[in-house]
Amino acid sequence: MNDSLFSKVVYQIYPKSFKDSNGDGFGDLSGILEKLPYLKKLGVDILWLNPIYVSPQNDNGYDIADYRAIDPRFGTMGDFEELARQAKAMGMGIMLDMVLNHTSTEHEWFQKALAGDKRYQAYYYIRDPKADGSLPTNWQSKFGGPAWQPFGDTGKYYMNLYDKTQADLDWHNPEVRKELYDVVNFWREKGASGFRFDVINVIGKDELLVDSVNDQQEKSLYTDTPIVHDYLQELNQNSFGQDPNIVTVGEMSSTTIENCILYTRPDRHELSMTFSFHHLKVDYKDGDKWQNQAMDFAELKRILNDWQVGMDQGGGCNAVFWNNHDQPRALTRFTNDGSYRVESAKMLAQTIHMMKGVPYIYMGEEIGMTDPGFTSMDQYKDIESINAYQMLLERGLSEAEALEVIQVKSRDNSRTPIQWNDQAYAGFSTSQPWLEVASNYPEINVEKELAQGTIFPYYQELIRLRKELPIIQEGSYQPLLVDHPQVLAYKRQLGDQELLVFNNFYDQATTVSLENTNYNYLLGNYGEREASNQLELRPYETIAFLSR
Ligand code: NOJ
């Protein structure tokens, strides 16, 4: 056993949907506290909580109105301190979500700016229109529409790369940076032992803003700019970097391997690891999320392999994951969540958990939760889905066609409440939850999984193996069978030890050739197998072998 970064496993909790302790239909901190023994049993080290601060919840807490207070819907500061204390006593740390690229327009800074306070106006990107009266730049918000909104009745505009109630902060202003370092330090004192930095690679916009020529080039104007590294080094030095035990992860939008190496190489003193998302865009048609298309498996393999090899060779650290609160569930999206639900869930888990990096489990993954399959737009709550639906209608799709896209792509797919048991509201709450529970909860729920399921124990085993085997933590990564149309396979190597992992992503059996069969079975989803020259992989089969 050791305590290196690569030995850790993170569990992501979307607090709104994890467990409601007071019957208001909204998950809360006391609900998380109640379930700590469950998380301990799973064996995870760090609990990442999505934002829990005071917020109008237009973007589910990513629109923060007060960085230093808990939203009463989630509980009190006392609840947070108790949660951090009890988690620590059980050997788990709390990772908080820091949304430092923007604030809610309800934040005091923005309100003061609106009231005319020049000091706070300098906290945001507030600009005059162009001479011809058009918006300061032609940039688009990532949630649809222009990236500029009228700044009160001043005739000026403020920048919003996300929702119009999320105003981008101007990091060029040293006072802004100092405020944000203080926020991180405030939560360190309250007991946080990790931080996830929301869209942190877009904080380096230029002071002088110019029009873009196309979508791709537009992103390059504000993404991964060199100054982001300077800001992260300064943030590190002035806050979490003072404590070597703190674990950090940066969410990197449209990023590159080169930049993620720089963000995470220990000697750079920026972050512990990064999230990148290219592997979750392999079912976008021509790069457009809002058109359904089957996944491009060759592309999925290429991206995962490139990131594994690149980050390993560059000395960086990947956060490895399939799911989060912004993604439909991979089980529904990439595999078969019906007749092969159990096999698929284990195969996806093993693919990631035996890779190099730090695995993230998104709540519900450990029991094989699926997308809910909502049938009406009224069931969706996410602002991005609602905007996208309108946009699809404007593109000329019928209501039914637009719904079909939302059903597959909506972020609400992963945000439905955790299915704890087969009682009313799946045991999540005693009243109607803020977002409907998936209707398969009588079949798929924690109580049933713990009594007779095999996915949860599989996750326990993967976590245990990571802690036990240095090769999973530190071994180099080499892609195998790169041209195989169904199988993602790789070799990990540490000294003269080898770990082979084969994952069949399809419901057709297939065969792979093994030159050397001098391996012992380690773990698989169809039980014990022998390494043979012609190894048959059954539907969604995963097998790992360790050299003798
Ligand atoms: C990324 C978060 O994960 C997402 O949920 C949020 O909408 C955007 N950042 C904006 O904060």
UniProtKB/TrEMBL annotation:
Keywords: Glycosidase, Hydrolase
Tree of life domain: Bacteria
Pfam family, one: SusG_C
Keyword field contains Lipid biosynthesis: no
GO CC terms: cytoplasm
InterPro entries reported in the protein's UniProt record: GH, GH13_cat_dom, Glyco_hydro_b, O16G_dom_2, SusG-like_C, Trehalose_TreC
GO biological process: trehalose catabolic process
One GO MF term: alpha-amylase activity
NCBIfam families: PRK10933.1 (NF008183), trehalose_treC (TIGR02403)
Annotated family: Belongs to the glycosyl hydrolase 13 family.
Entry-linked PANTHER family: ALPHA-AMYLASE FAMILY MEMBER, TREHALOSE-6-PHOSPHATE HYDROLASE
Protein name: Alpha,alpha-phosphotrehalase
Organism: Streptococcus danieliae
